[in-house]
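Supplementary Methods S3. Input chains for the assembly prediction are listed below.
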Amino acid sequence: MRFLELIFYKAYAELRVETAKGHLGILWWVLEPVLYMATFYVVFTVIRSGGTDDFVAFLLVGLVAWKWFAATVAMGASSIVNGASLLRQVYIPKYFFSAVVVMTNTFKFLIVFLLLLVFLVLYGVPISWAWLCLPVLILVQLLVIAAMASFLSALLPFFQDLKTLIDNGLMLLFFLSGVIFDISRAPEALKPYLYLNPMVGLVEAYRDVLLQGLMPNWSVLSMLAAAAVIVLMLSQYLLVRYDRVYAKVLIR
Amino acid sequence: MKNNHEVALSAHNIGVCYKGHGRALSGDGYWAFKGLSFEAYRGETLGIIGRNGVGKSSLLRVLAGIVSPDVGHMDSYGNSVSLLALRVGFLGYLSGRENAVLSGMLQGLRRREAEAKLEEIIEFSGLAEFIDNPVGTYSTGMAARLGFSVAMHAKSDVLLIDEALGVGDEEFKKKSTAAMKHIIASDRTVVFVSHAIPVVKELCDRVLWIESGEVKMMGETNSVLRAYIASINASKAKSVSKA
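Predicted C-alpha coordinates for the full assembly:
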Protein backbone atom coordinates (compact mmCIF):
# COMPACT_ATOMS: atom_id res chain seq x y z
CA MET A 1 0.00 0.00 0.00
CA ARG A 2 2.72 2.42 1.00
CA PHE A 3 4.53 1.88 -2.27
CA LEU A 4 1.37 2.15 -4.34
CA GLU A 5 0.79 5.56 -2.80
CA LEU A 6 4.41 6.43 -3.47
CA ILE A 7 4.12 5.40 -7.13
CA PHE A 8 1.08 7.66 -7.52
CA TYR A 9 2.74 10.63 -5.86
CA LYS A 10 5.97 10.19 -7.79
CA ALA A 11 4.03 9.94 -11.06
CA TYR A 12 2.11 13.09 -10.14
CA ALA A 13 5.41 14.83 -9.32
CA GLU A 14 6.95 13.80 -12.65
CA LEU A 15 3.93 15.13 -14.54
CA ARG A 16 4.13 18.36 -12.54
CA VAL A 17 7.78 18.71 -13.54
CA GLU A 18 6.79 18.44 -17.20
CA THR A 19 4.22 21.19 -16.87
CA ALA A 20 6.58 23.39 -14.87
CA LYS A 21 9.45 23.09 -17.36
CA GLY A 22 8.23 24.95 -20.43
CA HIS A 23 6.03 27.96 -20.98
CA LEU A 24 3.34 25.88 -22.66
CA GLY A 25 3.15 23.43 -19.78
CA ILE A 26 0.25 21.08 -20.05
CA LEU A 27 -0.37 22.07 -23.67
CA TRP A 28 2.63 19.97 -24.73
CA TRP A 29 0.79 16.77 -23.80
CA VAL A 30 -1.53 17.58 -26.69
CA LEU A 31 0.83 19.44 -28.98
CA GLU A 32 3.65 16.91 -29.01
CA PRO A 33 1.50 13.96 -30.15
CA VAL A 34 -0.23 16.17 -32.70
CA LEU A 35 3.14 17.18 -34.18
CA TYR A 36 4.24 13.55 -34.14
CA MET A 37 1.15 12.41 -35.96
CA ALA A 38 1.27 15.35 -38.36
CA THR A 39 4.78 14.29 -39.42
CA PHE A 40 3.60 10.82 -40.37
CA TYR A 41 0.51 12.20 -41.98
CA VAL A 42 2.48 14.55 -44.22
CA VAL A 43 5.08 11.95 -45.13
CA PHE A 44 2.63 9.19 -45.91
CA THR A 45 -0.01 11.18 -47.73
CA VAL A 46 2.72 12.59 -49.95
CA ILE A 47 4.19 9.15 -50.65
CA ARG A 48 0.81 7.48 -51.13
CA SER A 49 -0.74 10.39 -52.98
CA GLY A 50 -4.23 9.38 -53.94
CA GLY A 51 -4.43 6.64 -51.31
CA THR A 52 -7.67 5.52 -49.77
CA ASP A 53 -9.77 8.17 -48.08
CA ASP A 54 -9.79 6.57 -44.67
CA PHE A 55 -6.02 6.33 -44.61
CA VAL A 56 -5.78 9.24 -42.19
CA ALA A 57 -7.98 7.56 -39.59
CA PHE A 58 -6.25 4.24 -40.29
CA LEU A 59 -2.84 5.78 -39.66
CA LEU A 60 -3.77 7.84 -36.59
CA VAL A 61 -5.35 4.92 -34.72
CA GLY A 62 -2.19 2.90 -35.18
CA LEU A 63 0.12 5.77 -34.28
CA VAL A 64 -1.65 6.65 -31.03
CA ALA A 65 -1.47 3.07 -29.79
CA TRP A 66 2.10 2.70 -31.01
CA LYS A 67 3.37 5.87 -29.36
CA TRP A 68 2.07 4.80 -25.95
CA PHE A 69 3.78 1.44 -26.37
CA ALA A 70 7.14 2.64 -27.71
CA ALA A 71 7.62 5.63 -25.41
CA THR A 72 6.78 3.62 -22.29
CA VAL A 73 8.90 0.60 -23.17
CA ALA A 74 11.91 2.76 -24.05
CA MET A 75 11.66 4.93 -20.93
CA GLY A 76 10.62 2.06 -18.70
CA ALA A 77 13.60 -0.04 -19.77
CA SER A 78 16.02 2.64 -18.50
CA SER A 79 14.00 3.44 -15.39
CA ILE A 80 16.12 1.54 -12.86
CA VAL A 81 19.37 2.73 -14.45
CA ASN A 82 18.10 6.32 -14.31
CA GLY A 83 16.98 5.86 -10.72
CA ALA A 84 20.51 4.91 -9.62
CA SER A 85 21.13 7.87 -7.33
CA LEU A 86 17.78 7.37 -5.59
CA LEU A 87 18.09 3.64 -5.08
CA ARG A 88 21.56 4.09 -3.61
CA GLN A 89 20.12 6.36 -0.91
CA VAL A 90 16.92 4.64 0.16
CA TYR A 91 15.52 1.15 -0.14
CA ILE A 92 12.67 1.00 -2.64
CA PRO A 93 11.27 -2.17 -4.22
CA LYS A 94 12.46 -2.09 -7.79
CA TYR A 95 9.09 -2.46 -9.53
CA PHE A 96 8.55 1.15 -8.41
CA PHE A 97 10.72 2.57 -11.20
CA SER A 98 9.02 1.11 -14.28
CA ALA A 99 5.60 1.47 -12.62
CA VAL A 100 6.05 5.25 -12.38
CA VAL A 101 6.96 5.44 -16.07
CA VAL A 102 3.98 3.28 -17.04
CA MET A 103 1.67 5.45 -14.96
CA THR A 104 2.80 8.85 -16.30
CA ASN A 105 2.77 7.65 -19.90
CA THR A 106 -0.62 6.01 -19.54
CA PHE A 107 -2.06 9.25 -18.21
CA LYS A 108 -0.70 11.13 -21.20
CA PHE A 109 -1.94 8.42 -23.57
CA LEU A 110 -5.48 8.68 -22.21
CA ILE A 111 -5.58 12.39 -23.04
CA VAL A 112 -4.39 11.73 -26.59
CA PHE A 113 -6.77 8.81 -26.95
CA LEU A 114 -9.75 10.99 -26.04
CA LEU A 115 -8.60 13.50 -28.63
CA LEU A 116 -8.39 10.69 -31.16
CA LEU A 117 -11.98 9.66 -30.45
CA VAL A 118 -13.14 13.25 -30.91
CA PHE A 119 -11.19 13.47 -34.17
CA LEU A 120 -12.67 10.20 -35.48
CA VAL A 121 -16.21 11.37 -34.77
CA LEU A 122 -15.59 14.71 -36.47
CA TYR A 123 -13.99 12.84 -39.36
CA GLY A 124 -17.22 10.96 -39.86
CA VAL A 125 -16.45 7.58 -38.35
CA PRO A 126 -19.71 6.22 -36.91
CA ILE A 127 -19.82 5.59 -33.17
CA SER A 128 -20.48 1.92 -32.55
CA TRP A 129 -21.44 -0.35 -29.63
CA ALA A 130 -18.15 -2.08 -30.28
CA TRP A 131 -16.43 0.94 -28.71
CA LEU A 132 -17.50 -0.45 -25.36
CA CYS A 133 -14.69 -2.98 -25.83
CA LEU A 134 -12.10 -0.19 -25.72
CA PRO A 135 -11.41 -0.38 -21.95
CA VAL A 136 -10.57 -4.07 -22.35
CA LEU A 137 -8.28 -3.32 -25.25
CA ILE A 138 -6.54 -0.57 -23.32
CA LEU A 139 -6.15 -2.87 -20.34
CA VAL A 140 -4.54 -5.60 -22.47
CA GLN A 141 -2.14 -3.08 -23.97
CA LEU A 142 -1.37 -1.74 -20.49
CA LEU A 143 -0.46 -5.27 -19.37
CA VAL A 144 1.77 -5.79 -22.41
CA ILE A 145 3.52 -2.47 -21.88
CA ALA A 146 4.00 -2.97 -18.15
CA ALA A 147 5.40 -6.46 -18.76
CA MET A 148 7.94 -5.34 -21.35
CA ALA A 149 8.96 -2.24 -19.41
CA SER A 150 9.53 -4.06 -16.13
CA PHE A 151 11.27 -7.02 -17.76
CA LEU A 152 13.71 -4.78 -19.62
CA SER A 153 14.22 -2.55 -16.57
CA ALA A 154 15.29 -5.63 -14.59
CA LEU A 155 17.90 -6.60 -17.20
CA LEU A 156 19.29 -3.25 -18.29
CA PRO A 157 21.39 -2.51 -15.16
CA PHE A 158 23.38 -5.70 -15.86
CA PHE A 159 23.64 -5.23 -19.61
CA GLN A 160 23.61 -1.53 -20.32
CA ASP A 161 24.60 -2.12 -23.94
CA LEU A 162 21.06 -3.45 -24.39
CA LYS A 163 19.81 0.13 -24.58
CA THR A 164 20.93 0.54 -28.20
CA LEU A 165 19.40 -2.81 -29.09
CA ILE A 166 16.10 -1.82 -27.49
CA ASP A 167 15.89 1.48 -29.38
CA ASN A 168 16.62 -0.18 -32.71
CA GLY A 169 14.43 -3.17 -31.88
CA LEU A 170 11.52 -0.81 -31.26
CA MET A 171 12.08 0.80 -34.65
CA LEU A 172 12.03 -2.64 -36.30
CA LEU A 173 8.84 -3.55 -34.43
CA PHE A 174 7.32 -0.27 -35.61
CA PHE A 175 7.86 -1.00 -39.28
CA LEU A 176 6.53 -4.54 -38.78
CA SER A 177 3.58 -3.53 -36.62
CA GLY A 178 1.14 -2.63 -39.37
CA VAL A 179 0.86 0.94 -38.16
CA ILE A 180 1.76 2.22 -41.61
CA PHE A 181 0.34 -0.64 -43.71
CA ASP A 182 -2.47 -3.12 -43.58
CA ILE A 183 -1.18 -6.30 -41.99
CA SER A 184 -3.86 -8.40 -43.69
CA ARG A 185 -2.11 -7.76 -47.00
CA ALA A 186 1.14 -9.30 -45.76
CA PRO A 187 2.12 -12.68 -47.31
CA GLU A 188 0.26 -15.55 -45.58
CA ALA A 189 3.49 -17.41 -44.85
CA LEU A 190 4.84 -14.47 -42.84
CA LYS A 191 1.74 -13.72 -40.78
CA PRO A 192 2.34 -16.09 -37.85
CA TYR A 193 5.75 -14.50 -37.36
CA LEU A 194 4.39 -10.96 -37.61
CA TYR A 195 1.99 -11.74 -34.77
CA LEU A 196 4.95 -12.35 -32.46
CA ASN A 197 5.07 -8.55 -32.36
CA PRO A 198 2.46 -7.76 -29.70
CA MET A 199 1.53 -4.48 -31.36
CA VAL A 200 0.32 -6.23 -34.53
CA GLY A 201 -2.64 -7.80 -32.74
CA LEU A 202 -3.32 -4.66 -30.73
CA VAL A 203 -3.23 -2.20 -33.62
CA GLU A 204 -5.51 -4.52 -35.57
CA ALA A 205 -7.91 -4.74 -32.65
CA TYR A 206 -8.09 -0.94 -32.28
CA ARG A 207 -8.85 -0.61 -35.99
CA ASP A 208 -11.49 -3.33 -35.96
CA VAL A 209 -13.26 -1.67 -33.05
CA LEU A 210 -12.84 2.00 -33.91
CA LEU A 211 -13.00 2.01 -37.69
CA GLN A 212 -15.10 -1.05 -38.55
CA GLY A 213 -17.32 -1.25 -35.48
CA LEU A 214 -16.35 -4.92 -35.19
CA MET A 215 -15.50 -7.02 -32.16
CA PRO A 216 -11.75 -7.41 -31.72
CA ASN A 217 -10.11 -10.79 -32.18
CA TRP A 218 -10.56 -12.05 -28.62
CA SER A 219 -8.29 -15.06 -28.98
CA VAL A 220 -5.35 -12.89 -30.04
CA LEU A 221 -6.05 -10.49 -27.17
CA SER A 222 -6.31 -13.23 -24.55
CA MET A 223 -3.05 -14.76 -25.73
CA LEU A 224 -1.37 -11.37 -25.45
CA ALA A 225 -2.77 -10.86 -21.97
CA ALA A 226 -1.64 -14.32 -20.86
CA ALA A 227 1.86 -13.78 -22.26
CA ALA A 228 2.04 -10.39 -20.57
CA VAL A 229 1.09 -11.85 -17.20
CA ILE A 230 3.77 -14.52 -17.52
CA VAL A 231 6.42 -11.93 -18.43
CA LEU A 232 5.26 -9.71 -15.55
CA MET A 233 5.69 -12.58 -13.10
CA LEU A 234 9.11 -13.39 -14.53
CA SER A 235 10.18 -9.74 -14.19
CA GLN A 236 8.91 -9.54 -10.64
CA TYR A 237 10.94 -12.69 -9.88
CA LEU A 238 14.08 -11.04 -11.31
CA LEU A 239 13.41 -7.73 -9.53
CA VAL A 240 13.06 -9.49 -6.20
CA ARG A 241 16.01 -11.79 -6.85
CA TYR A 242 18.32 -8.82 -7.57
CA ASP A 243 16.50 -6.29 -5.37
CA ARG A 244 19.53 -5.52 -3.22
CA VAL A 245 22.10 -6.00 -5.95
CA TYR A 246 21.13 -3.14 -8.27
CA ALA A 247 22.54 -0.48 -5.94
CA LYS A 248 25.92 -2.21 -6.14
CA VAL A 249 25.90 -2.77 -9.89
CA LEU A 250 24.88 0.79 -10.74
CA ILE A 251 27.88 2.97 -10.14
CA ARG A 252 27.15 6.63 -10.64
CA MET B 1 17.24 2.19 28.17
CA LYS B 2 20.88 1.98 27.33
CA ASN B 3 21.68 -0.97 29.51
CA ASN B 4 19.09 -3.55 28.60
CA HIS B 5 21.26 -4.97 25.79
CA GLU B 6 18.42 -5.84 23.49
CA VAL B 7 19.96 -6.25 20.04
CA ALA B 8 18.48 -3.94 17.39
CA LEU B 9 20.76 -4.77 14.50
CA SER B 10 23.34 -7.46 14.00
CA ALA B 11 25.86 -8.38 11.35
CA HIS B 12 27.18 -11.91 11.06
CA ASN B 13 30.41 -12.28 9.17
CA ILE B 14 29.31 -9.97 6.38
CA GLY B 15 31.38 -9.02 3.36
CA VAL B 16 30.82 -7.08 0.15
CA CYS B 17 32.76 -7.78 -3.00
CA TYR B 18 32.89 -5.50 -6.04
CA LYS B 19 33.39 -7.07 -9.41
CA GLY B 20 34.94 -5.19 -12.31
CA HIS B 21 32.45 -2.72 -13.69
CA GLY B 22 30.77 -3.82 -16.89
CA ARG B 23 31.65 -7.43 -16.21
CA ALA B 24 28.79 -8.06 -13.84
CA LEU B 25 28.87 -11.81 -14.22
CA SER B 26 32.56 -12.54 -14.34
CA GLY B 27 35.97 -11.37 -13.25
CA ASP B 28 37.69 -11.17 -9.91
CA GLY B 29 36.51 -8.64 -7.43
CA TYR B 30 37.92 -6.81 -4.49
CA TRP B 31 36.44 -6.95 -1.02
CA ALA B 32 35.30 -3.60 0.37
CA PHE B 33 35.12 -5.37 3.71
CA LYS B 34 34.97 -8.95 4.83
CA GLY B 35 34.16 -11.01 7.88
CA LEU B 36 32.56 -8.20 9.88
CA SER B 37 30.48 -9.24 12.87
CA PHE B 38 28.97 -6.86 15.38
CA GLU B 39 25.76 -5.90 17.11
CA ALA B 40 24.07 -2.60 17.85
CA TYR B 41 21.93 -2.51 20.97
CA ARG B 42 18.59 -0.77 21.16
CA GLY B 43 18.96 2.85 22.18
CA GLU B 44 22.72 3.00 21.95
CA THR B 45 24.90 5.01 19.61
CA LEU B 46 27.49 2.89 17.92
CA GLY B 47 30.37 4.74 16.28
CA ILE B 48 32.26 3.33 13.33
CA ILE B 49 35.74 4.72 12.70
CA GLY B 50 38.45 3.87 10.27
CA ARG B 51 40.60 5.51 7.66
CA ASN B 52 39.31 6.60 4.26
CA GLY B 53 38.61 3.87 1.79
CA VAL B 54 37.79 1.13 4.24
CA GLY B 55 34.36 0.57 2.76
CA LYS B 56 32.35 2.57 5.27
CA SER B 57 29.76 3.75 2.79
CA SER B 58 29.39 0.24 1.42
CA LEU B 59 28.90 -0.95 4.98
CA LEU B 60 26.20 1.64 5.66
CA ARG B 61 24.40 0.59 2.47
CA VAL B 62 24.40 -2.99 3.68
CA LEU B 63 23.15 -1.99 7.14
CA ALA B 64 20.38 0.07 5.51
CA GLY B 65 19.25 -2.95 3.50
CA ILE B 66 19.99 -1.22 0.19
CA VAL B 67 22.63 -3.75 -0.79
CA SER B 68 22.75 -7.35 0.36
CA PRO B 69 26.11 -8.66 1.56
CA ASP B 70 27.87 -11.17 -0.69
CA VAL B 71 28.68 -13.34 2.30
CA GLY B 72 27.23 -13.49 5.77
CA HIS B 73 23.90 -12.01 6.78
CA MET B 74 22.26 -9.10 8.52
CA ASP B 75 19.40 -9.17 10.97
CA SER B 76 17.38 -6.15 12.00
CA TYR B 77 14.80 -8.02 14.11
CA GLY B 78 11.87 -6.26 12.47
CA ASN B 79 13.31 -2.79 13.06
CA SER B 80 13.21 -0.32 10.22
CA VAL B 81 16.65 0.92 9.31
CA SER B 82 17.39 4.00 7.24
CA LEU B 83 20.35 5.92 6.01
CA LEU B 84 20.24 9.61 6.79
CA ALA B 85 20.50 11.14 3.35
CA LEU B 86 19.98 14.69 2.21
CA ARG B 87 17.85 15.79 -0.73
CA VAL B 88 16.49 12.32 -1.41
CA GLY B 89 14.66 12.38 -4.75
CA PHE B 90 14.52 16.17 -4.98
CA LEU B 91 13.14 17.46 -8.29
CA GLY B 92 14.43 20.93 -9.15
CA TYR B 93 11.28 22.14 -10.88
CA LEU B 94 8.99 21.39 -7.96
CA SER B 95 8.41 23.60 -4.94
CA GLY B 96 10.03 23.03 -1.57
CA ARG B 97 6.66 21.96 -0.25
CA GLU B 98 6.11 19.28 -2.91
CA ASN B 99 9.68 18.06 -2.57
CA ALA B 100 9.32 17.76 1.19
CA VAL B 101 6.29 15.50 0.78
CA LEU B 102 7.91 13.42 -1.97
CA SER B 103 11.19 13.09 -0.11
CA GLY B 104 9.43 12.20 3.15
CA MET B 105 7.43 9.52 1.37
CA LEU B 106 10.58 8.10 -0.22
CA GLN B 107 12.02 7.90 3.28
CA GLY B 108 9.18 5.85 4.66
CA LEU B 109 6.36 8.24 5.51
CA ARG B 110 2.82 7.81 4.27
CA ARG B 111 1.50 10.79 2.34
CA ARG B 112 -0.82 11.78 5.20
CA GLU B 113 2.05 11.69 7.70
CA ALA B 114 4.34 13.69 5.43
CA GLU B 115 1.67 16.34 4.95
CA ALA B 116 0.92 16.43 8.67
CA LYS B 117 4.59 17.05 9.45
CA LEU B 118 4.98 19.61 6.69
CA GLU B 119 4.54 22.71 8.85
CA GLU B 120 7.04 21.38 11.38
CA ILE B 121 9.52 20.55 8.61
CA ILE B 122 9.17 23.98 7.03
CA GLU B 123 9.58 25.72 10.35
CA PHE B 124 12.68 23.73 11.23
CA SER B 125 14.24 24.44 7.85
CA GLY B 126 13.68 28.17 8.32
CA LEU B 127 12.67 28.42 4.65
CA ALA B 128 9.05 29.48 5.13
CA GLU B 129 9.24 32.38 2.69
CA PHE B 130 10.85 30.30 -0.07
CA ILE B 131 8.89 27.11 0.43
CA ASP B 132 6.66 27.58 -2.62
CA ASN B 133 9.58 28.42 -4.94
CA PRO B 134 11.13 25.68 -7.07
CA VAL B 135 13.93 23.87 -5.24
CA GLY B 136 16.10 24.42 -8.32
CA THR B 137 16.28 28.10 -7.36
CA TYR B 138 17.62 27.30 -3.87
CA SER B 139 21.26 27.64 -2.97
CA THR B 140 23.09 24.43 -2.06
CA GLY B 141 22.84 25.39 1.59
CA MET B 142 19.10 26.00 1.41
CA ALA B 143 18.47 22.68 -0.33
CA ALA B 144 20.58 20.94 2.31
CA ARG B 145 18.52 22.61 5.04
CA LEU B 146 15.27 21.39 3.55
CA GLY B 147 16.73 17.93 2.95
CA PHE B 148 17.98 17.73 6.50
CA SER B 149 14.67 18.84 7.97
CA VAL B 150 12.81 16.17 6.01
CA ALA B 151 15.30 13.48 7.00
CA MET B 152 14.97 14.47 10.67
CA HIS B 153 11.22 14.00 10.51
CA ALA B 154 11.26 10.67 8.69
CA LYS B 155 10.84 7.78 11.04
CA SER B 156 12.92 4.67 11.47
CA ASP B 157 13.97 2.56 14.45
CA VAL B 158 17.62 2.54 13.52
CA LEU B 159 19.23 5.60 11.98
CA LEU B 160 22.50 5.42 10.09
CA ILE B 161 24.48 8.63 9.86
CA ASP B 162 27.43 9.20 7.57
CA GLU B 163 30.09 11.78 8.37
CA ALA B 164 29.27 15.43 8.84
CA LEU B 165 26.77 16.26 11.54
CA GLY B 166 26.01 19.82 10.59
CA VAL B 167 24.87 21.06 7.21
CA GLY B 168 24.13 24.47 5.72
CA ASP B 169 25.43 27.83 6.85
CA GLU B 170 26.94 28.49 10.28
CA GLU B 171 23.63 29.19 11.98
CA PHE B 172 21.85 26.16 10.54
CA LYS B 173 24.92 24.03 11.22
CA LYS B 174 24.48 24.70 14.92
CA LYS B 175 20.80 23.94 14.72
CA SER B 176 21.26 20.72 12.74
CA THR B 177 24.09 19.56 14.96
CA ALA B 178 21.91 20.14 18.00
CA ALA B 179 19.03 18.23 16.37
CA MET B 180 21.27 15.30 15.58
CA LYS B 181 22.68 15.25 19.06
CA HIS B 182 19.15 15.25 20.37
CA ILE B 183 18.29 12.18 18.29
CA ILE B 184 21.51 10.48 19.25
CA ALA B 185 20.82 11.11 22.94
CA SER B 186 17.23 9.82 22.63
CA ASP B 187 16.41 6.15 22.82
CA ARG B 188 16.70 5.74 19.08
CA THR B 189 19.41 3.37 17.90
CA VAL B 190 22.05 5.21 15.91
CA VAL B 191 25.02 3.97 13.92
CA PHE B 192 27.36 6.85 13.31
CA VAL B 193 30.26 6.79 10.88
CA SER B 194 32.85 9.51 11.22
CA HIS B 195 36.48 10.61 10.99
CA ALA B 196 36.00 13.27 13.64
CA ILE B 197 37.41 11.76 16.82
CA PRO B 198 36.09 14.46 19.22
CA VAL B 199 32.53 14.04 17.90
CA VAL B 200 32.70 10.26 18.20
CA LYS B 201 34.06 10.64 21.70
CA GLU B 202 31.22 12.93 22.69
CA LEU B 203 28.34 10.99 21.17
CA CYS B 204 29.07 7.29 20.99
CA ASP B 205 28.51 4.63 23.64
CA ARG B 206 30.64 2.09 21.87
CA VAL B 207 32.97 2.20 18.91
CA LEU B 208 33.79 -0.24 16.13
CA TRP B 209 37.17 0.31 14.51
CA ILE B 210 37.56 -1.06 11.01
CA GLU B 211 40.97 -1.49 9.42
CA SER B 212 41.61 -2.98 5.96
CA GLY B 213 37.99 -4.07 5.75
CA GLU B 214 38.08 -6.06 8.98
CA VAL B 215 37.16 -5.43 12.60
CA LYS B 216 40.31 -4.21 14.31
CA MET B 217 38.74 -3.49 17.67
CA MET B 218 35.34 -3.08 19.22
CA GLY B 219 34.37 -1.88 22.64
CA GLU B 220 33.85 1.03 24.98
CA THR B 221 34.48 4.40 23.29
CA ASN B 222 37.48 5.67 25.23
CA SER B 223 39.57 2.54 25.03
CA VAL B 224 38.96 2.03 21.30
CA LEU B 225 39.69 5.68 20.53
CA ARG B 226 42.91 5.56 22.56
CA ALA B 227 44.15 2.60 20.51
CA TYR B 228 42.99 4.19 17.26
CA ILE B 229 44.82 7.45 17.97
CA ALA B 230 47.94 5.55 18.95
CA SER B 231 47.85 3.64 15.67
CA ILE B 232 47.39 6.84 13.62
CA ASN B 233 50.30 8.50 15.40
CA ALA B 234 52.45 5.44 14.85
CA SER B 235 51.78 5.37 11.11
CA LYS B 236 52.37 9.14 10.89
CA ALA B 237 55.70 8.73 12.64
CA LYS B 238 56.58 5.95 10.23
CA SER B 239 55.83 8.05 7.15
CA VAL B 240 57.77 10.98 8.62
CA SER B 241 60.82 8.84 9.30
CA LYS B 242 60.67 7.45 5.76
CA ALA B 243 60.62 10.95 4.32
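The radius of gyration of chain B is 19 Å. Chain B is about 40% helix and 25% strand.
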